[in-house]
Amino acid sequence: APAVNLRRGPANDIDPAAYPDARALATLMHDLALPRGELVAVTFADSEFAALTVNWATHLRDAAVPHVVGALDKNMLQLLRRLGAPTAVYDLPYADLDGSSSHKSKSWKAFARLRISQVSALLRMGFDVLMSDVDVVWTKDPRPFLQCGYDHPWAGRTGKGAGEKDAGKLGAAGETGDALEKWERDAVEMEGGESPDEQAMFLRKHGRGVDDCMGVSAADVMVSSDNLSPLTDKNEGAAYARGGIFNTGVVFLKHTKNAKAFAEAWNDNLNQDEGRFAPLTSDQQVFNAMVRREGHWPGLELKALPDGFPVTRVLVGNGLPNGEAFNLGVLPVALFQPGHVAFLQRVKEVLSDFNGPYGVHATYTFDGSTSSAKRLRFAEAGLWDPSADDAQVGLGGVEADDATFHAGGVPRVLTWDPAVATRGIDESVPNIGSHLEAGGRQLELLRDAIAMAQLTNRTLAVPRFTCFCDKVWGGHDNIFNFNCHYPGSKDSGHIPGPCPMDHFVSPAKLRESGVAFVALEELRRAPYEFGGDDFGAVRVEFKENADAGGGVTVVTAGGGRGVTLPVGADSAVVVDALGKLRDVPLLKLTGEMPRFAGFTTQRAAREFNARVTNVAMKSAPEWCSECHPQGCRELIPADVITSGRLKPVRNVHDQFCADFKQPEPLRTVGKESFLAMA
């Protein structure tokens, strides 16, 4: 089994009887024998989220981070026990979870109380706790950042900053060379962390820390944020972060006195039946309310750091039972990414020193908040472990298309070049008119690719679509004032650019219609393992006036085979030409728009249109944006407005909504075409 990296020190001596509210967890932690002060990542899930949970665990296994899952039903418990060490699991029965990630039900609030009580117990046992939603992927070990300047065995290294390559071994008392000084050893043992003087001493010895982590190291509690500007967040730190919503999908709590008190107060407030917190429906809403001064916005003061430190990411938090304050840190959005930052923005182009995130949270989906919607988000970004699909399928779920992917024992896949659908559109300028035009073309190309994949018994590998305008929840806010960027994200400059599939069509509806597909980035992972920048694809190029007889085999620059097909080829031409390449693992549609002409039988055309064209393709979500305060006619060209509709919103201003042009039903061609028209 893979191992986890642990801090030096004796095992934490835990008496399970001392934790009657978390005895199963305490028994597990006693048996794990982790050292006091170790970081433990923890999540809670039932078997409805088996795939996401296994994906969460496998990434932490790869990062060698200790992690624990509270299994809410027997299936999840048994599954993770089969996965084995170092994934640790314990029985935490909870039968009332409603099977979704909705935060509005009484069931969810009760679940929130349960998990906060378990986190509070872990803190009392003497562990630092990384509380994580199951829809988070941990791409690398976050301990050098989260425990920076506080947990000196991790951060106190010679040479480069903690967490960087070629840094020295973990320092520990008694070692030579990297040995910690007495003040460092004492700080490790202090539950309250180090004093400001010790922080300054650490800074002089070790520098600003990996990723400027010393800017947040004074915090008792750290939380992620839904803010959308990595650049502003980096430059302004807590001054910017306090104006946004804190997201409790990622919360890190040190085992300090104040963090323990905060966790207890958080749990107490979730249990209130009356008063300020009673109407709030989730632990996130309660968290955001309790840390701010009531009746004030943002209701949080900045905590000053000593000279020479990075910009402060620490706020003076409220909410402790005795009225005292605690240190609340807000995690950088570039390093602990919400969905929009992770799946649309190009952070490396904005922050030149960016070395990738520690965690990615799938918060930005438009095909529901289901496990499969979040799975696809991670798959599109190359963050999905295929073994997670096996887990879900083993519990009766359907998450992958392995059976069709390996038809005949040989991977047989079809994809396309996204540029085919956007050729001729100015890709340097955000524009709603271009977005609507490109959306219609991309849906037509998707329809044609589905038809050709099914004709040739191939699984579709869907590349990223291209957006010329961002998409906002429910059409709220005025996206036009931010140059077609989601409000708050304009300085990222990610539009025009790649964007998720569910901006244009419902992936769930495609699956329900029998369309077998994977995300293109999944081809890099086992069991597929297609290599190279283009996955070794053989090109199927569509050209006007090409050989109508079914394609001309050509030799590509790399010496491989390819085929040229005429624009407007029908099913007979496609089957004949691509049948000659049946042993090729991956075909890629390129050139001009295929303009697939249709099927040679009425039955095939009717069946395809009934399932795909007239059902799945019509699941494309409506695109909307409000236009306050100027009004839509001041912001949108008149010819674009005519392609959609204006609706009044809140009796104050209007909203522009439009649908992407839907692909036409495919025709019957050849001998049966006249019958289809009758």
Description:
The protein is 31% helix and 17% strand. With 678 residues, it is an alpha/beta fold. The strands form six sheets. It has a nine-stranded mixed sheet. Strands 17-14-13-21-18-20-19 form a seven-stranded mixed sheet. Strands 5-12-11 form a three-stranded mixed sheet. A hairpin with a 5-residue loop joins strand 19 and strand 20. It is globular, with a radius of gyration of 27 Å.
Share of residues in strands? 15-25%
| Radius of gyration from CA coordinates | 27 Å
Strand order of the largest sheet: 3-2-1-4-7-6-10-9-8
Mean pLDDT: 85
The low-pLDDT segments are 151-178, 397-408, 674-678
Helix content: 25-40%
Structural class: alpha/beta
Shape: globular
**What is the number of strand segments?**
26
Largest sheet: 9 strands, mixed
Cα end-to-end separation: 66 Å
Q: Count the helices. How many?
A: 25
Descriptive tags:
678 residues; alpha/beta; seven-stranded mixed sheet; 25 helices; 26 strands; 17% strand; globular; disordered C terminus
Q: Secondary-structure map with pairings?
A:
Layout: H1 23-32, E1 39-45, H2 50-63, E2 67-71, H3 74-83, E3 87-91, H4 106-124, E4 128-132, E5 136-138, H5 143-146, H6 152-155, H7 182-189, H8 196-206, E6 221-225, H9 230-236, H10 238-241, E7 246-253, H11 257-270, H12 283-291, E8 301-302, E9 314-317, E10 326-330, E11 336-337, H13 339-343, H14 347-350, E12 359-361, H15 371-380, H16 387-394, H17 402-405, E13 413-416, H18 419-422, H19 432-455, E14 459-462, E15 465-467, E16 497-499, H20 507-512, E17 517-519, E18 538-543, E19 552-555, E20 561-566, H21 571-579, E21 586-591, E22 598-599, H22 602-613, E23 623-626, H23 632-635, H24 638-641, E24 645-649, E25 653-658, E26 667-668, H25 673-677
Parallel strand pairs: 1-2, 1-4, 2-3, 6-10, 11-12, 13-14, 13-21, 14-17, 18-20, 18-21, 22-26
Antiparallel strand pairs: 4-7, 5-12, 6-7, 8-9, 9-10, 15-16, 19-20, 23-25, 24-25
